[in-house]
Fold this protein.
Amino acid sequence: MRIEAYTQVQKLYDNRKTTRAVAAGSTAASDRLQISSLGKDIQWVKQALSESGDIREDIVAPVKAKVQSGTYEVSTERFADKLLEKFLEKYEELR
């Protein structure tokens, strides 16, 4: 058995692996990111929300003033109606 021939064949295979790796690495592949219109809309909404305040002062200020002055009153009937409405919504979701 000739060891030289085996070594020469092994060198050929090693060369091909290296050549393929270099050839594959030399191709100019680039990654691209494409965002759908829904994704763009979600980004826009997130940015708008992050820029806006958490508290709407135009609504909170009058209520706060009434509470501090002791003139704020809650309609128990409206409160009960809203409470029952929310309960029924949750009940329907669970059914």
About this structure: Residues 77 and 83 are 10 Å apart (CA to CA). Helices lie at 3-26, 37-51, 57-69, 76-94. The chain has a mean pLDDT of 81.
